[in-house]
Structures are given as C-alpha cells and as structure tokens.
Amino acid sequence: MSERIFRYTMSPRCFRYKEEAILNHAPESPGVFEFVTFDAAGQAKVLYLGLAHRNMAEALRAHLQGVQQPSVEALLQRYPDLYFDYVEWSDAQGPEDLQDLAAALSHQCQPPHNPEPLAFTDRYQQVKLQEIELPMIQPH
Question: What is the pLDDT of residue 117?
C-alpha cells in the first residue's frame, strides 16, 4: 500500500494540565496526546505531541511528575496556561498505525518541545490526515 489516510477526532475540549483532570478525563488506553497552550487570540498552539504505547493517563502523569520530558513543571514556567488533549477516536488499527498517526500529526503541527518529529514506520510512501467530527449521540 503506497498511501494511508488516517481519519481521527480530537477530544471535545482541552483540559487544564492537573492531576484531577488526568484522573477524570485522560483515557487509560494507548493513544496520541498533546500539550497545548493558547495565544491571546485564543488560537491553540501544540507544544508537545506524545504517543502512549500502553496508557495515556499514565503517560500524562509521568510528564506531570517529571519522570518523562518535557516535564510539566518546566513547561509551566514558560507557559502558565498549559492544557492537554488527545485523539479521542481514529481508524488506526494497532500499534504501528498509532505510530504513523502520531508521526503524521507531529510533522503537521511541528511541536517545539519534541526533540524531533516522531518517526513513521515506513509501511506507506505517504501518510495523510483527515480530521473529522463525530456525530453527537442523541439521548432516547
């Protein structure tokens, strides 16, 4: 296969980077997450993009505790309004797809606190992204 288009949806909102928010909102599944801040006009800027191979909540806690870099403490010194969000849904199937999705997002947003863009698996000649909105489920 020469090209892969990943369809994905981001979390419905960004969450302030605190232990309570991780506990209440971060998924305990593999996935892609971002550290985000907002400029004066309310435009989001992705500061860091991470790939959690096992558990996004644990990965977010590792950054909060300073076990994983960049540490939240260091980011908060520079960006007092720090948030996280994550890929809520995607058509990625398995760890290699998650790696390629994360790499494509990393190349697209070029977060300044990633030492370098995340690597592709090289299974595809080209990886593209299509962000979609999931329909709201209406209560019965």
Answer: 87
3-10 and 126-131 as β-strands: parallel, antiparallel, unpaired?
parallel
| pLDDT tier for residue 46 given thresholds of 50, 70 and 90 | very high
Give the DSSP letter string of 74-104: HHHHH-SS-EEEEEEEE---SHHHHHHHHHH
**CATH for 3-131, among 3.40.50.720, 3.40.1260.10, 3.40.1440.10, 3.40.47.10?**
3.40.1440.10
For the cut 70, the answer to whether the pLDDT of residue 137 exceeds it is no
Our CA angle for 53, 106, 132, nearest 5°, is 85
Q: Distance between CA atoms of 54 and 52, rounded to whole angstroms? A: 6
Q: Which amino acid would we find at residue 55?
A: N
Q: Can the peptide bond before residue 95 be classed as cis, meaning omega within 30 degrees of 0?
A: no
Distance, CA of 101 to CA of 3 (rounded, Å): 13
Map out the domains of the chain as residue ranges: 3-131
Pairing of strands 15-16, 31-38: unpaired
